[in-house]
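Chain entry —
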Amino acid sequence: MERYTIDTTAIISYFIKVFEGAESQISPKSLDIIGRAFNDPDIILYFPSIVFIEIFSKWFRDEEFAQKIKSEVFYPIRSQENFAIEPLDKEVLENFMKITDIEQGWNFDNHDKQVLATAMKYQAPLITSDKKIIRYNKRKHVIPNIFS
């Protein structure tokens, strides 16, 4: 069984046709993992709930576009039995509090910390292009791998 945690940039990159004007930020290999998961129940994807909050806050331009995101992104993800939308629970919060800034100028925002904390909970590789998270994991090794 394969397991991965998915960041906001991965969702936007996979559903690039919905997010007009966005550019794909993750590799073809990462896009393939997400695509295969839609048809293979042995690939588990964890979506920290914060990624949807981030998408909704940055991309909801009007009600018509909001409905498009819901119907073409959120509902297909929500309907997959092998996809889990993960809450900010006790274990994620404890991991969140363990994540510290690695140096001045490399501070995490709370969205990024919650995504990384979720990956830590499951010790699942993270699909992201976030350079701060990638750099942090290279130094701290808190999750097994990052696919960008």
Remarks:
- The mean pLDDT is 94.
- The chain has one domain: 2-147.
- Residues 63-79 form the longest helix (17 residues).
- Residues 48 and 115 are 6 Å apart (CA to CA).
